[in-house]
Amino acid sequence: MSSLQQIIFIPLISLLPCVLWLWYFSTRSQYKSPAVKVLGWTFLFGAIATVPALGLNLFGQSLFLTLFGRNESSHILVLLFVVGPVEELIKLLVVYFYAFRQPEFDEPLDGVIYSATAALGFAAIENVVYLSQNDSMLVLLRGPLSNPGHALFSAIWGLSLSRAKAAPNLPRIRLKIIAGGLLCASLLHSTFDILLVASSRISIFIFALLIGAMAGLFFWVRSRIKFHSDTSPHREGTLFMPLGRYCQHCGAKGTGGTRCSKCGTYIPEPEELQFCPVCHTHQRPGAKFCAICGANIQLPAKENLDTRPHFVSVSGDGQEEIAYILNEESVSVGRTLNNNFVVDHQSVSKKHARLKIHDGYYSLEDLGSSNGTFVNGKRITETVLRDDCEVRFGRALYIYRAHRVPDAPLA
Questions:
Q1: CA distances (Å), origin 104, targets 42, 231, 234, 325, 331
Q2: d(CA 17, CA 26)
Q3: Measuring CA to CA, which residue among 116, 26, 109 is closest to residue 336?
């Protein structure tokens, strides 16, 4: 093969398996079209990331060879502590600083899609370098093994990015989630590389074991893809929340805003609604304990957990946990991951509400949500939040902590 043919042929066969795998991952979302622009830039940035990764790998390799000498143990240590962690970290940073911050990253499945996209861009350049130095027919091995390997390893920290985006906006919580995903992906990547080297030098059985492990990882990632596709916030919109009430005329159980099925009397929607903070079941007026799960539905909040304005969730035994800290002038609330405050509950709309700061106080505005926004049991369009008030988005209940009571009247 001539030099010109190699210049054209090798990049083409290097890109082909990566493009095919990219098509597979990018088309897993059933309820929205892939963001082609974001996918393209993420793929390109993943390819560019091979440059700093190469420099760090060479530095780490040089360091280990200097410390432990040029031997088999040093090579294994390089694969374990340098190659896997460095490559996964570089790919994660690509997604974190670009795709993760785009409005198109709005559902958990996007963690898999964009992590795989960056990984496949990275793998494409690896293919070019590897095949230019070896037999180009090795693409038949790298295509079904090494290329999806990059995507599958990265999908692990990709899922952790999605979980972190939906978690309370506390650095210690989000960094812990992301670090756990990165550590797991790095260990799997390093183990894969070590077994691949061992299979070429020791036994074909190790190679068969490697194939089986990769197949297992693929089916696990595919199960996560199916789960997040089935539970996508884009799937069927917001679950309508019927308002269960009792007929004031005959006492039969019915639905607010409809006529009683027994006597035909109109059952009005209640001005104030009381729901169990544990199971979210509608309660009779004046009830102290939930009729379904027995939880105390009038538990007071016990303590302030942060000096900044924030929302807390309250468990059945009265324990508080920070759900979101209000540290921006405008905060969007909803189910999709491109909101600031992500509330993963079916009664919450994709774009449910918005919080804005005005004269030092936060006001809450409902954005035409399907199931409404409630403050202290009353449905609101817009209002100023007061310290210790109960805020409910659909059926997701929180306590607002402001640490001072605003003087502004409710709108």
A1: 12, 17, 12, 23, 17
A2: 14
A3: 109
Beta-carbon contacts of 90 under 8 Å, excluding residues fewer than 6 positions away, are 49, 52, 53, 56, 122
Q: What's the rounded mean pLDDT across residues 299-324?
A: 70
Joined together, the tokens standing for residue 93 give 């940073």
If DSSP codes are grouped into helix, strand and coil, which group holds residue 285? coil
Give 358's pLDDT tier (boundaries 50, 70, 90). confident
DSSP string, 336-396: STTSSEE---TTS-TT-EEEEEETTEEEEEE-S-SS-EEETTEEESEEE--TT-EEEETTE
Query: What are the residues whose beta carbons fall under 8 Å from the beta carbon of 201, sequence distance 6 or more?
Result: none
How far is Cα 314 from Cα 397, in angstroms, rounded to an integer?
Answer: 8
Bridging pattern class, strands 330-334 and 341-342? parallel
For 356, what's the count of Cα atoms within 13 Å in the CB-facing half-sphere? 8
Instruction: Kindly report, residue by residue over 67-101, the tens digit of the pLDDT.
Output: 888 888 888 899 899 999 999 999 999 999 999 99
Number of H helices, E strands in the chain: 10, 15
Place of tokens 């001005």: 271
Report the pLDDT value the prediction gives residue 4, as an integer from 0 to 100. Answer: 47
Distance of CA 183 to the CA centre of its chain: 17
Res. 304 pLDDT band, cuts 50 70 90? very low
- Of 219, 174, 46, 183, residue with least CA distance to 116: 46
Pair of tokens at residue 82? 């340098």
Q: How confident is the model at residue 226 (pLDDT cuts 50, 70, 90)?
A: very high
Instruction: Match 């918005």 to its residue by tokens.
Output: 354
By the 8 A CB rule, do 15 and 217 touch? no
Q: Are 241 and 369 in contact (CB under 8 A)?
A: no
Backbone dihedral angles phi then psi of residue 380, each to the nearest 5 degrees:
-125, 155
Angle at 114 between CA 109 and CA 119, to 5 degrees: 130
